[in-house]
Write a structure and sequence with these properties.
It is a single chain. This protein is 20% helix and 36% strand. With 182 residues, the chain is α+β, with helices and mostly antiparallel strands. The strands form 4 sheets. A 4-stranded antiparallel β-sheet has the order 11-12-7-13, covered by helices on one side. The chain has a 3-stranded antiparallel β-sheet with strand order 1-6-5. A 3-stranded antiparallel β-sheet has the order 2-3-4, with helices on one face.
């Protein structure tokens, strides 16, 4: 049995789970998420918990068991608490700002880079110097994808560490020119 797949998913207060065949809709204070799951995985709600089971021990069914449970858990956590990715900006003159709902970044190009948030995603720049970006939303996949797109605008370079990186990400630094070391 899958160690992750056999764990029940507790449903927090204020969250409703609607299961229609294998189409699951989860509603909560942070929004609403829905997803279709494979028919070989059975999803049911019992005693304030969602339980995921599989029909057989076939290899494909085993592989989808834990995945389905993890995706359902992310949906429940997302609509109740939400997900946040934190990015840090390093470099002289590099900064971010919020213009309406858009994220505007100056990261060393001749023009500012603008990001329009998709539905359900919000940007925040809590640092007044514009060195920190928070991407928040209910859908974990979308939050991660938008954070990756922002990081991709100017990935951190290995010599000075300038660029956009995830908070807490370690950048492997290089020594630079051999002549400078002497």
């Amino acid at each position: 049995m899958s160690r992750i797949g056999k764990l029940p998913i507790p449903i927090p207060q204020g969250v409703t789970v609607n299961i229609n065949n294998n189409a699951v809709t989860v509603k909560g204070p942070k929004g609403e998420l829905s997803r279709d799951f494979p028919p070989e995985i059975a999803i049911e709600e019992k005693d304030g918990q969602v339980i995921v089971t599989r029909n057989s021990d076939h290899r494909i069914h085993r592989s989808k068991h834990g995945l389905t449970r993890a995706l359902l858990n992310n949906m429940v956590v997302g609509v109740s608490a939400g997900f946040t990715k934190e990015l840090a900006i390093e470099g002289v003159g590099y900064r971010a700002a919020i213009d309406g709902k858009k994220l505007v970044m100056n990261v060393g190009y001749s023009h500012p880079i603008e990001f329009d948030p998709p539905e359900g995603i919000t940007f925040q720049v809590p640092d007044r110097n514009g060195r920190q970006i928070l991407v928040s939303g209910a859908d974990k996949e979308v939050v991660g994808e938008i954070a990756a797109r922002i990081r991709r605008t100017r990935p951190p370079e290995p010599y000075k560490g300038k660029g956009v990186r995830y908070a807490g990400e370690q950048i492997r630094r290089k020594a630079g020119k051999a002549g400078k070391a002497k």
